[in-house]
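Q&A FORM
Asked by: J.P.
Topic: structure of HTH-type transcriptional regulator MhqR

PROVIDED:
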Amino acid sequence: MNTKPTQLQQELKKKQAFQSPEIEAILNVLRTSDQLQNRLGKLFREYGLTSSQYNVLRILRGEGKPLPSLEIASRMVQVVPAITGLIDRLEKRGLVQRKRCQKDRRVVYVEITSEGITLLNEMDQPLRELHTELLGYLTESELNELNQLLVKARQNCCVGAGISG
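REPLIED BY: S.T.
REPLY: Here is the structure written out as tokens.
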């Protein structure tokens, strides 16, 4: 039976069909994620940030108050092994500051500075434009469906790995 190669087969120059639709779907997610990360990463680099550094600043601005570093780590879009080093680099740039908890000196809170807020505010419009460029061609219904499918896949991954997410 001669079936037409899928879009992903063509992109990867794969001669044979994928062994299963699950394999093709996973590779599609990985390839798409890589391309989205590349485009977003380019924008973040224009502002001297990595995607993880942007994520820390976004979390802090959204919360509106200082957070313990472990709380920030738990809210990250992508897991980072060394949140302390990430915060160190942001602190050196004056984008965040650390404050020790008065009640428990072992706990360190991280707070976004006015410089950090200013930087994020400068990035908001270009980031919105990039989001629209990357996914604005999808209808609201398609975006909702995509979100639901990705959540469903991620929840199953977490269950299989014994983690929450």
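FOLLOW-UP: The first helix runs from residue 7 to 11.
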